[in-house]
Amino acid sequence: MVTVRCIMMEKNEEVLLEPWILYHAHLFGFENLTILDNGSTNQRVQTLLNKYEKRGCHIIRSFTERQNFVDKGKIITEIIQEWDRSHEPYDFAVPLDCDEFLAFFDQKILMNRDDILAEFRHLKKYDGTFLLHRILMNDPVNMGLFYPQIIRKSFFKKNTLVGLDNGYHEPVTIYDDKMIWTGFVYIHLHNRYDFLELKRFSSEKLMPFIELLNGETLKNYTGIGSHLVADFFHTEEDYKYQYRDKGLLYGGEFIAKLQNLGCGLQEIFGQEAYSSQSYHNITQFYHQYNIQYHLISFKEKDSSTVEFYDEKFYRHNNPDVHDHSFFKIWPLVHFINYGYYEGRKGSGLTLQAFSSDVS
After folding, report:
1. Is 74 a member of any domain?
2. Domain limits at 163?
3. Which end of the chain is more exposed for a tag (fewer CB within 10 A), N or C?
4. How confident is the model over 268-296, as a mean pLDDT?
5. One Pfam annotation, family name (predicted)?
6. How far is CA 201 from CA 95, 196, 348, in A?
């Protein structure tokens, strides 16, 4: 038996709030979701909060000020520490944002309740600060395709948290000298299909920290939320096609999971991404041949090539790059940025090339 609690602060997350709740309730139960509403004014958000509060979610409405978002890490630390003082029944606390969905990276992306809880049960025997470094960023124009990145995040065992920063990147626990890297991954739906909506959300999050009208200051900003700065300096075209030359991981299981939970895919990803020929062609291939490995889509000139990827195979067959920083942290990131272009094989299986209508 293992109990995992998720905690999240949001404001006016009209599109992603319900998918976030349904997805994590499927994994851990509504009663193990705590949502801090940071002063939402959107009526639909208020309706959703009321709806899921009745189903067991814990909704906290007392942190409505902008400064509360600045102090998010401190506030969430205090709430988790209060759970500990009150002897609340839980084993792990997982702080998330509303655009982050927890899964596990194995031979496939695991996101079923039994698989996820089995991984947490396995971790119960260890003491330390639990970290993950695997992020899958959604492609704005191709639903179900994700760009793998290495970004550090954290979660905690009961009675261990001492302090937490705003982005959950630099935790402090009673085991601060013992870091345990896990295979968990965040599917990160940061890239919204509406470019103006993306900029609005980024403005909302950066406003407490920096003057947004000063372009030069904003461009050189390196503080909390600095990863959002780029949203203000590229065109809509550059934003939409930012991954045009990148290897993208196929995540059809996640899309199917959202659909099975009753989430509206077109509302989440937009009509253009929902209608992506790349996604639908790869999905057809994936199911037709009952693929048991990861698929990576690479676009090259007028065609797209889909590579199979087997992490165990790639680790075993590339000893010469074992010391590369990407390889040591997440070999997939090495493969899509270096290995593929160096002619390294992602698996022992044959490549499948698609015509230009996949791109």
Report:
1. yes
2. 4-188
3. N
4. 87
5. Glyco_tranf_2_4
6. 19, 9, 43
Question: Token digits for 118?
Answer: 């089995």
Tokens at 81, concatenated: 């520490």
DSSP secondary structure of 297-349: EEEETTEEEEEEE-HHHHHHH-GGGTTSHHHHH-HHHHIIIIITTTT--SSSS
Give residue 319's pLDDT band: very low, low, confident or very high (50, 70, 90): very high
Say if 224 falls within a structural domain. no
Return the structure tokens found at 341.
Answer: 């272009």
The pTM of the whole model exceeds 0.90: yes
Q: Does residue 290 sit within a domain?
A: yes
Taking phi over 0 as left and psi of -120 to 50 as alpha, with beta for the rest, 144 belongs to left
Residue 11 pLDDT level (bands cut at 50, 70, 90): very high
Bridge partners (DSSP) of residue 129 are 179
Residue 160 confidence (pLDDT): 98
Structure tokens at 274: 């929902």
Mean pLDDT of 17-26: 98
Read off the amino acid at residue 118. A
pLDDT at 347 over 80: yes
Per-residue pLDDT, 291: 80
Q: Which of 168, 188, 208 is the last residue of a domain?
A: 188
In a domain, 33, yes or no: yes
Find, among 22, 263, 275, the residue nearest to 144 by Cα: 275
What is the four-CA torsion angle of 101, 78, 39, 8, rounded to 10 degrees?
Answer: 10
Model confidence pLDDT, tens digit, residues 80-127: 999 999 999 999 999 999 999 999 999 899 999 999 999 999 999 999
| Helix 113-123 and helix 17-28, axial crossing angle in degrees, nearest 10 | 60
- Tokens 């954290």, residue located: 154
Distant-in-sequence contacts of 230-234, Cβ < 8 A, 24+ apart? 231/198, 231/199, 231/202, 232/199, 232/202
How many Cβ atoms sit within 10 Å of the Cβ of residue 216?
Answer: 7
Output the six-digit token pair for 23: 């997805």
